[in-house]
Amino acid sequence: MVVIATLGVLAALLLPVLSQAKKRAQRIQCVGNLRQLGTGLQVLLANDHSYPLLVGGTNGDGTWMGQLAIEGLGISQPMTNYVRTGVWHCPSAMWIKPDTNSLPICYGYNFGGLVSDESADNNFGLGGRPSTGTPLHDSAVKNPADMLAVGDVFTQRLGLVRDPNFANLLAVYQRHQGRSNGVFCDGHVESPSLQFLYADTSDPALARWNRDHQPHRELLPP
Predict the structure, then answer these.
(1) From residue 44, how far is each of 14, 131, 218 by CA, in Å?
(2) What is the C-alpha to C-alpha distance for residues 193 and 128, in angstroms, rounded to an integer?
């Protein structure tokens, strides 16, 4: 009985440690995914000198992911539902309101900067001019090392949007122990805190969403 009790105590002590180790490993795998997507983005930029459109590209399935898969990662014919596997799938992904009719998209594209309207031409992100299907030239990004390109999303959507209300949904946003992984326009990956990425309204926090590297505080919701 003493041995059984001791084993029970040891198991209770080890479970939290093992859980944290698993979450850490998942975060590392997610970072690796984004590094590969960042490398693919650099290949695409070197060839096209412009960023993918959120939707409307001529390659792949018409999404930024299809464009990046073909032109950046060199996958001539992506498999059906490719976003469920490989570098497109975060192992610890969960969504605010799971939709079984939608693909489980783990990574979103910073198409609009602080402008969350997918059809807006006056955006400050990487989405170009949706109304004419005109992509954004790479020279339009003033500080690629501090411009967020692709990162974790918490709803099943193509775009990465700054959500200042993340604190109301903290349980879901704990995907990576209070952090969110993202790859920047120069290809490097960071894991900033959710607080800094979504709630901080300082100039450095806001500017990294926008291609002109300005905070555009006037675009924040009231």
Answers:
(1) 45, 22, 32
(2) 28
Cα separation of 61 and 105, whole Å? 14
Q: For residues 6 and 49, what is the distance between their CA atoms, to the nearest angstrom?
A: 63
In 81-209 the beta strands, taken as DSSP E runs, fall at 107-109, 148-152, 182-184, 189-190
CA dihedral 176, 180, 184, 189 (to 10 degrees): -30
pLDDT of 9 reads 54
65-87 pLDDT, tens digit each: 999 999 999 998 898 889 999 99
Residue 169 near residue 18 (C-beta atoms within 8 A): no
Q: Max alpha carbon distance in the chain (Å)? A: 74
Q: Does the model's pTM come out above 0.90? A: no
Q: Which two tokens stand for residue 10?
A: 């040891």
Q: How far is CA 36 from CA 44, 113, 114, 187, 189, in A?
A: 12, 22, 25, 9, 10
Query: Which H or E run includes 204?
Result: helix 203-207
The per-residue pLDDT for 93 is 86
Q: What is the pLDDT of residues 116-140, one digit of tens each?
A: 999 999 999 999 999 999 999 999 9
